[in-house]
Amino acid sequence: MSYQATNPLSNEFELELSRPLTAYWLATLRVVVGWWFFHAGITKLIENGLSFTGGPAYLKGMTGTALGPIPVWMGNNLAWLIEPGVPLGETLIGLGLMVGALVRLAAFFGAVFMTLFWVGNAGFGNGIVTGDFLGLLLFVTMIVLATGRYFGLDALIERTEFVRNRPRLKYLLG
């Protein structure tokens, strides 16, 4: 018996990347993750401006984590970068994802953030799969599937003469 005969959804439900359902889902995923990061960043900006002291304070308290003394050193010596960098980074990553502009670049930096959160939080008591790890997987998914091309500005930006004359720029888009 063939696979098609045993699959009742074979003629009704397709998840090929060329299908409309997939495009809608990838665009929805991108916007929701964008809102998640935008909301986190804009809230920090509204409450603290560019002086998000919670970041360096958090790092200073990470003495017994998997990263060892590195985050403590960062909290003590890089506060000038972390205080404005976290809220601005989260806000810009979120905006880029929501409008679908420079999605691969934004998702790369989102993946960097989530990697640092995942390793830094080091709450592996229930295994390595945590909320931070799942966030990391979402960002990697957006990079791999170029989700900015689905109802995002990247689809328009890729058609510009500037990008067509510089094909390597397509790797930042999507």
TrEMBL record:
Where does the signal peptide begin and end? Answer: none
As for membrane topology, the entry says: Multi-pass membrane protein
What would be one Pfam family of this protein?
A: DoxX
Which InterPro entries is this protein grouped with? Answer: DoxX, DoxX-like_oxidoreductase
- State where it is primarily located: membrane
| One Gene Ontology cellular component | plasma membrane
Q: Where does it reside?
A: Cell membrane
Which keywords describe this protein according to UniProt?
Cell membrane, Membrane, Transmembrane, Transmembrane helix
Q: Which residues cross the membrane?
A: 21-38, 92-118, 133-152
Q: Which domain of life is it from?
A: Archaea
Protein name as it appears in the record: Putative membrane protein, DoxD family
Q: Which organism is it from?
A: Halapricum desulfuricans
